[in-house]
């Protein structure tokens, strides 16, 4: 429950940057914790899900139900073109939004207030309503425009968590590295988890 007495409700956006597994793992973890999740995936995001995770994208609602329908939390999928969806309005209360992974194109749109699709509009709502917005940028190398856009967002209070896994906990698999990044996102949202072993000195 949140301070308003209702079940927590989060928005997760997945864009066309490499690393779509971060967003998928995040959704799984939120749903496993009995939380509600509103999902937005850009057109390029669907392409990356197909290329990296071998998802079939011909029946998008069907694949999402296959992957997430068995969790105790409830998810709702919004097409990125649906600018009139619930999460496009500040009057629809959510606890925050995470874009994971976030392409430099989406990051630029958010930094410059370009709300021309549901994903960037939902992020704009987080900024105007003062709600948590966490971005997991996934690009390398970075040039000055990328860095300037990140600085602009950081000054607005956006939490930037680059997909940079640690190695002090001796990861044994790729899943361990993925869980570390997702765990850092959850830490910033103050959501309890056991995804990685914490440093104890």
TrEMBL record:
Q: Which UniProt keywords apply?
A: Flavoprotein, FMN, Prenyltransferase, Transferase
Class of this enzyme = transferase
Asked if tRNA-binding is a keyword of the record, the answer is no
Residue sites binding FMN per the record? 16-18, 42, 103-106, 138
Q: Where are the transmembrane segments?
A: none
Q: Which domain of life is it from?
A: Bacteria
Report residues binding dimethylallyl phosphate: 168, 184
Q: Which Gene3D superfamilies match?
A: Flavin prenyltransferase-like (3.40.50.1950)
Per UniProt, what is one GO molecular function of this protein? carboxy-lyase activity
What does it catalyze? dimethylallyl phosphate + FMNH2 = prenylated FMNH2 + phosphate
Q: What is its EC number?
A: 2.5.1.129
InterPro entries the record matches: Flavin_trans-like (IPR036551), Flavoprotein (IPR003382), UbiX-like (IPR004507)
Flavoprotein domain spans which residues? 9-189
Pfam families per record: Flavoprotein
Q: Does the keyword ATP-binding apply?
A: no
Q: What does this protein do?
A: Flavin prenyltransferase that catalyzes the synthesis of the prenylated FMN cofactor (prenyl-FMN) for 4-hydroxy-3-polyprenylbenzoic acid decarboxylase UbiD. The prenyltransferase is metal-independent and links a dimethylallyl moiety from dimethylallyl monophosphate (DMAP) to the flavin N5 and C6 atoms of FMN.
Q: Which family does it belong to?
A: Belongs to the UbiX/PAD1 family.
Q: What is this protein called?
A: Flavin prenyltransferase UbiX
Q: Which organism is it from?
A: Paenibacillus crassostreae
What gene does this protein come from? ubiX
């Amino acid at each position: 429950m949140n301070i308003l007495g209702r079940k927590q409700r989060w928005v997760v956006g997945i864009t066309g940057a490499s690393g779509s597994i971060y967003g998928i793992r995040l959704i799984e973890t939120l749903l496993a914790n009995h939380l509600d999740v509103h999902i937005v995936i850009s057109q390029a995001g669907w392409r990356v899900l197909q290329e990296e995770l071998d998802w079939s994208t011909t029946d998008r609602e069907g694949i999402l139900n296959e992957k997430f329908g068995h969790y105790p939390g409830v998810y709702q999928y919004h097409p990125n073109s649906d600018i009139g969806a619930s999460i496009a309005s500040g009057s629809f209360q959510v606890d925050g939004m995470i874009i994971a992974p976030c392409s430099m194109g989406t990051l630029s749109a958010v930094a410059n207030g370009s709300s021309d699709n549901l994903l960037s509009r939902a992020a704009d709502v987080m900024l105007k309503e003062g709600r948590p917005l966490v971005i997991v940028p996934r690009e390398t190398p970075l040039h000055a425009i990328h860095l300037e856009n990140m600085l602009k967002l950081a000054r607005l209070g956006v939490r930037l968590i680059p997909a940079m896994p640690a190695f002090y906990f001796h990861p044994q698999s790729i899943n361990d590295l993925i869980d570390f990044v997702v765990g850092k996102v959850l830490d910033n949202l103050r959501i309890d988890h056991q995804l990685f072993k914490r440093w104890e000195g």
